[in-house]
Amino acid sequence: MKSIIILYNLLITVFFILALPFFSGFSKRRNSILKKLGITGFKTNKKEKPIWIHALSVGELAAIVPLIERLKNFYGKHKIAVSVSTKTGYETANNLLKERTSRLFFFPFDLIFSVKRVLKKINPSLIVINETDIWPNFLLIVKKKKIPIILINAKLSKNAFKFKKIFKTIFLNFDVICVENKKRKKDFQLLGYPSERLIITGNTKFDFNPPLFDLKRIEELKADVGINKEQKIITVGSAHKGEEIIIKEAFLKLKNKIKDLALIIAPRDPRRGYELLKLFKNFNASLLSEKKKTTVAKDVIIIDKIGVLKEFYAISDLTFVGGSLINKGGHNPLEPAAYSKPILTGGYTSDFKQIYETLIKSEGTKIVSNAEDFYKKALSILNDPKKKGEMGKANNKVLNANKGAAFNISKVIINKTY
Length: 418
Known about the structure:
globular; Rossmann fold; 2 domains; 7-stranded parallel beta sheet; alpha/beta
């Protein structure tokens, strides 16, 4: 294993050196690179000793918000520091968590000197890693410094069993691993991780508590973006390149059947807003960031802002969660479920496999395979208010039945900090 770590460090150092010219050409990236190296953006406070919670990006952040709220409300004396790995994650965390955390920063590159610098400046009492953003140098250095470290919402990929010995060694660096259910626990047991250090806690994604929207707020939001009261709304979240053309084809057919129909679509990368505007040029379409007063109801609204998608799930009649019509593993469907909305999804949902299986089994979520399938199933739901309501309630019931992970994980964390 020692020879593998030496090789890993050699490769990651060479890669970083080769990538420097690319990074240095972009001022915004150059700024985040200095932070990921631990050179800028930190003040040392050895007395603080916060609980450090890490989430990769936007989707993972949503999963740790309930946990942070639980820790702040019931164990307020502990400071909480949050790290992310991406720029969009940082922007989202700044919106969601700025008032609830003592520090918000970029997770360090997995270079020995950058990991050591950041650990010294943060000086955590305990570290919590959410899901799968796991780095060998970081784990080894944390272990050497005897800082307790916990993995939450843990899951294993198929590759973990192909390289069983390596992955077992990596995961043994965690003091405790919190898993969603018995199946996830069995996976880690098969890998060789000790059973006594595995705790079934549930998944914090289910603990999402949506902001409430009354009828007045819904009408205001519709009016604000140019949608009239009579229009039915399909909201598509986290769409990837290649999916939008399928959705456009389905929407065109739906508009021939339902005249008062609007599409709200959020690309996974908000910077692709203008690209989608061109795609939907034959519709009355606009970007969310460029609100224009009009007396004509909009056909298509393209969300090119971060952190607002849940508001549009709340006002929808039907939702679709992207990354699933093409092989991207799918995205989290629990926000629309929290608002009791019927959900459509493609068949590629491996990243949220068990969540989708449960939602589909409840009959609140349906799989679509192409534009024609999307059109038929969407039309069936939109034209049947009873069916729409029953599907939404079924999704919400699944969400509420699986709540409690934030409470369970907070107990594990506090037990480790005393």
